[in-house]
């Protein structure tokens, strides 16, 4: 699903653009994936796992997301560089089509600039415009206070925990929390 471009100013005055992915984003996205994976233990991949991502694969993924009636990928571009992205996927089954799953990531250089809030506003807008969607769902890793604060600010609440869902290289086990935001109808 394609979205309309959303331009906005970052807190530091730079201009940012939210939009659907384009072929020209492939190389920048590959860099973004590695950078973001190395900055925190809260993303579900390590930098060395990013070798599986290829220009051809990303191009195909972008096309799939843009053509899908049930998924949207939103890139955040600053100065021609992909600095974050988010995704929303609408469930299709008769018993689950009232649900939407979301994910979001942003490189640390752009934390606290208002990007996460703007990406969430766009995903919420998409969910609210979809007939029958009653809730949005996401997960976050134990200790990620920054993400939890953003999610709660955007109306999400913790609904469950998966004990020891994440295992770091040093053997540390972390819980994963599920959160839901109800869509007002």
Description:
The chain has 185 residues and is an alpha+beta fold. It has a single domain, classed as Aminopeptidase (3-Layer(aba) Sandwich), CATH 3.40.630. Helix content is 28%, strand content 34%. The protein has helices at 26-39, 55-67, 115-129, 145-153; strands spanning 6-9, 15-19, 71-78, 81-90, 99-106, 135-141, 157-167, 173-182. The protein has an eight-stranded mixed beta sheet, with helices on both faces. Strand 3 (71-78) and strand 4 form a beta hairpin. The radius of gyration is 16 Å and the shape is globular. The two termini are 22 Å apart.
Structural class: alpha+beta
Number of strands: 8
- At the fourth level of CATH, the homologous superfamily is Gcn5-related N-acetyltransferase (GNAT)
Largest sheet: 8 strands, mixed
Q: What is the ordering of alpha helices and beta strands?
A: EEHHEEEHEHEE
Query: Overall pLDDT, averaged?
Result: 96
Count of discrete alpha- or pi-helical segments spanning 4 or more residues: 4
Molecular shape: globular
CATH class membership: Alpha Beta
CATH topology: Aminopeptidase
SSE map:
Elements: E1 6-9, E2 15-19, H1 26-39, H2 55-67, E3 71-78, E4 81-90, E5 99-106, H3 115-129, E6 135-141, H4 145-153, E7 157-167, E8 173-182
Parallel strand pairs: 5-6
Antiparallel strand pairs: 1-2, 2-3, 3-4, 4-5, 6-8, 7-8
Give a brief description.
The chain is 28% helix and 34% strand.
Descriptive labels:
185 residues, 8-stranded mixed beta sheet, 4 helices, globular
